[in-house]
Amino acid sequence: MAENFDVVVIGAGPAGYHAAIRAAQLGLKVACIDAALGKDGKPALGGTCLRVGCIPSKALLDSSRQFHNLQHLFGEHGISAKDAKIDVKTMVGRKDKIVKQFTGGIAMLFKANKVTPFYGFGTLHPNRVVKVKQHDGTEVELQGKHVILAAGSDSIELPFARFDGKHVVDNVGALDFEEVPKRLGVIGAGVIGLELGSVWKRLGSEVTILEAMPDFLAAADAEVARTALKEFKKQGLDIKLGAKVSKAEVKKNEVHLTYNDGKADHSLVVDKLLVAVGRKAASKGLLAEGTGVKLNERGQIEVDEHCATGVEGVWAVGDCVRGPMLAHKGFEEGIAVAELIAGLPGHVNFDTIPWVIYTEPEIAWVGKTEKQLKDEGIPFKTGSFPFAAVGRAVAMAEPAGFVKVIAHEETDRILGMHLVGVNVSELVHEGVLAMEFHGSAEDLARICHAHPTLSEAIHDAAMAVDKRAIHKAN
């Protein structure tokens, strides 16, 4: 006999666990199903983000940054160190410890909020029945007044470069190399490719990134992308644009690649190959026959602006629906749906979702790019300010990059903020907040910013919109 719940959530990643906890906070009886296991073979909540994505990649990025700075930056500060070495096993072990801490933390939050976890694969059946095939082979049946589908996403696999977990890997494998690969090939110059390519480059790997598109980071502001590309090339990342890979063969512990740059075929031999060409909705096996829930041509669950599927009581959130595949977007959708179920207002503003790439320098933006505004015929004005003119950035020996503020030419309302430089993952939220409250460039320019701080770059960029920046020629 089915166990009854007010809300059954399939998936305990960022969108799912936020939905489950918020629904429980609102007094609803909640179950949350998740199939993932940790490296120790035990259930591990938190989804891709926590287990093999956002959190572990940031742990390795920080470890590799420390090692790189010890070798290349500390000398400027008068700090010397000889024969610096990196113990990859210890570095990966630290990453695993952090992951375990946070996956365990979600289990504790479920317990504190009285969310009932089920560990196994959940499938939605008609009339909001969810069957869970548990890891011990048994099956349980749950009945929900509401069901929230939060199945997340999987890595896209290329037909000619199948993952083998050893030579050809996705983000999961690239987080667990046992030693620094002498030569690392990366297909895809997106977030995952750039971040994990940066990790192993800093540790001594010879990294070649092959990007099929002719433009670098086409989704970002063009000036930001140019600046970032210049800095990455300075660091020794070999980024080849317009390079379409057609073959990847493993021979004698090496991966032999063939790619075309639009002029001719070229070959590349690497020790490890990271395939980072994007992610797809993990909707396979999620829906039984007759549920009425529809998938689009990309395998995403179709939903309206409130994340409703059109089937009574069935919702979907996070990476398995439209919109950016970002953990924080999933957070907000999960909370919004929980509140809608409880009869409260729930809303996500897609116009103010920030984007971040955690490379060195970091890249972050919110809102529209200049190209998007031009294409839409919206009149705008811009102001930018370089970190090279910011005292705090120079004192930190981190002068690369800049901040750009884009405002409507007539109303002065902020339409976008684009940043490349040190710690811009934190600074971008000044733009998010200003835009959420319909702020203007003048509003930002009139807010007192502490000196010396990196945030002064935002202040001066906002002043530069009206050509009144103090610390640069306008």
Automatic annotation (TrEMBL):
NAD(+) binds at G188, A189, G190, V191, I192, G193, L194, E195, E211, G278. The gene is lpdA. Gene3D superfamilies: 3.30.390.30, FAD/NAD(P)-binding domain. The active site is a redox-active disulfide bond. GO terms for cellular component: cytoplasm. Its cofactor is FAD. Disulfide bonds join C49-C54. The lineage of its organism: Bacteria, Pseudomonadati, Pseudomonadota, Gammaproteobacteria, Lysobacterales. It is found in: Cytoplasm. FAD binds at K58, G122, D319, M325, L326, A327, H328. Binds 1 FAD per subunit. This is Dihydrolipoyl dehydrogenase. The keyword Kinase does not apply. Residues 353-461 form the Pyridine nucleotide-disulphide oxidoreductase dimerisation domain.
